[in-house]
Inverse folding.
């Protein structure tokens, strides 16, 4: 069991009318890995994320999670199976307190309120939001909201955590603590797949990087190799810059 | 922190108990039938609004068609009693169950609609119900049903000489509706509903089956409203489609909650305590020939509140939780 990858997408396609957002994407994520999913704007990263999280079914292809075909399962069921996610545009429950936000996630594993509440407090401490537990989510600053997204997802005790640009738009200090948090999460045995824009932050963090471009997998490999790959450079900066590489 | 939370929950319970106890002795001193009548109506609308609040306040699915469930409760009780001699107590439960089932049946297509479209659907469906009862001969059609007086008894839930039994039942109903809300507030359903209201997509990603959550809220809400409708039928002892299923009933259920604080534990009751006496008093003192003045007062009140305190009056009483935490 443990040798099979935790997540596999097999020949996944997603079309929106005439637009092809993902074409024949086959990736796999091993247990305990931190994998970075990168690529220029419009590369299809977020679409792939939504397909893995179960927001919409792929036009074609299948998604295998933990040895099971989950292609037909809706998002809520995938969460129950162990897929946690954050949103690129934060979606906090604004009228609820921070702790209540996290309790919603914790209720997936235990519907006994006392346990869910205790679990939520633990997760908040883990994410460094402990002191903000009773603040309304709408009163958090942006970097705290990102943490809340992570905390909420962690409270569902995921096997795979999908992080959608959680480090983007943060100050360098905030980004650094964010990176530490992601490492800490992995150290608890959670596999992480993260979409990220900011190369210099992601590259030292991830074990492996998958580059998407125009809906296809362009390159896949160790971060150090990926950034030197001429195809990646040309995808990001245009063909002219790739020549010298 | 947890103890703070448990303490505030317990405080709510104690306050509710004390208020109920005070309310229970008031009619022993206030003998005026007119005033007692207002108190009965206040408690009933408080209970109804509290029930409406479960679906529309907590779960965020604004319904302006709850008159349908109110009417079904009233009709079920009245029909079972007049046609089959079934005691109103069974009619109450039966009406509640029928309403809950209908609410889920209607929710099946309607909960796919969002925002305004959902609201419009609820209005239209309630109007359809009204028209059906208007034309249903067996159920008295437009003439309605006169509930025959068979003498004062708790068994038949009829009282001609005193309003007190009705008062105590209305009080019990308000207490039950409040307690159900209190209990649900700190249950998985309470959290799921608020999550669904705030952001369905995020809720779904956290394992909440949004559709089922809405169905649960609709069923509980409709059941309680129907029990209120049953009570009302016994209280006024004559019902016709307009007087139990008219659109104004849907509005009257929503307004106390909106005034007091939508999606809050105390909002609906607080709203009813202010709104219902004001309506009744204006109706009897400046109503009459100048019909509609009570509605002007009503509307004015709502406008004033939505301008000055859109989150509802209940915010005036509770210390802000976030400040307490800092």
């Amino acid at each position: 069991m443990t040798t099979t990858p935790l997540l596999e997408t097999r020949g996944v396609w997603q079309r929106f009318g005439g637009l092809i957002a993902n074409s024949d994407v086959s990736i796999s994520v091993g247990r305990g890995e931190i994998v970075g999913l990168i690529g220029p704007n419009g590369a299809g990263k977020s679409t792939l994320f939504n397909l893995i999280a179960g927001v919409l079914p792929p036009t074609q292809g299948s998604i295998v999670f933990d040895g099971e075909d989950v292609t037909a399962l809706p998002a809520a069921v995938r969460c129950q199976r162990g897929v946690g996610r954050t949103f690129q545009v934060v979606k906090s429950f604004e009228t609820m307190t921070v702790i209540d936000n996290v309790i919603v996630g914790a209720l997936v594993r235990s519907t006994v309120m006392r346990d869910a509440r205790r679990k939520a407090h633990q997760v908040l401490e883990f994410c460094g939001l402990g002191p903000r537990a009773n603040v309304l989510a709408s009163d958090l600053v942006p970097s705290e909201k990102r943490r809340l997204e992570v905390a909420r997802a962690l409270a569902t005790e995921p096997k795979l955590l999908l992080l959608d640009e959680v480090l983007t738009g943060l100050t360098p200090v905030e980004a650094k603590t964010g990176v530490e948090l992601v490492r800490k999460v992995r150290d608890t045995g959670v596999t992480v797949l993260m979409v990220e824009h900011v190369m210099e932050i992601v590259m030292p963090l991830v074990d492996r990087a998958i580059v998407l471009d125009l809906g296809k997998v362009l390159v896949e490999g160790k971060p150090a190799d990926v950034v030197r790959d001429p195809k990646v450079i040309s995808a990001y900066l245009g063909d002219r810059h790739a020549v010298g590489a | 922190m947890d103890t703070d939370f448990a303490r505030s929950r317990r405080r709510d319970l104690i306050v509710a108990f004390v208020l109920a106890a005070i309310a229970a002795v008031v009619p022993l001193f206030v003998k005026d039938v007119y005033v007692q009548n207002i108190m009965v109506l206040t408690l009933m609308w408080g209970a109804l609004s509290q029930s409406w609040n479960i679906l529309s306040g907590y779960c965020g699915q604004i319904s302006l068609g709850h008159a349908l469930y109110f009417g079904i409760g009233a009709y079920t009780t009245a029909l079972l009693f007049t046609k089959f001699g079934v005691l109103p107590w069974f009619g109450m439960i039966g009406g509640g169950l029928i309403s809950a089932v209908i609410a889920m049946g209607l929710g099946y297509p309607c909960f796919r609609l969002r925002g305004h479209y959902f609201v419009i659907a609820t209005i239209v469906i309630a109007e359809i119900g009204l028209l059906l009862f208007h034309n249903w001969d067996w159920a008295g059609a437009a003439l309605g049903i006169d509930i025959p007086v068979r003498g004062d008894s708790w068994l038949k839930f009829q009282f001609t000489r005193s309003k007190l039994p009705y008062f105590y039942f209305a009080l019990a109903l308000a207490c039950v509706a409040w307690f159900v809300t209190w209990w649900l507030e700190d249950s998985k359903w309470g959290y799921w509903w608020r999550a669904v209201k705030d952001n369905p997509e995020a809720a779904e990603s956290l394992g909440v089956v949004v559709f089922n959550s809405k169905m649960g809220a609709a069923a509980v809400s409709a059941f309680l409203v129907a029990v209120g409708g049953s009570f009302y039928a016994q209280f006024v002892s004559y019902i016709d489609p307009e007087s139990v299923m008219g659109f104004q009933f849907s509005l009257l259920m929503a307004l106390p909650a909106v005034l007091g604080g939508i999606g809050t534990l105390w909002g609906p009751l607080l709203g009813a305590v202010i709104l219902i006496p004001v309506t009744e008093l204006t109706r009897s003192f400046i109503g009459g020939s100048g019909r509609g003045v009570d509605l002007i007062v009503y509307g004015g009140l709502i406008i004033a509140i939505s301008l000055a305190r859109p989150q509802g009056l209940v915010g005036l009483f509770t210390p802000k939780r976030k400040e307490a935490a800092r």
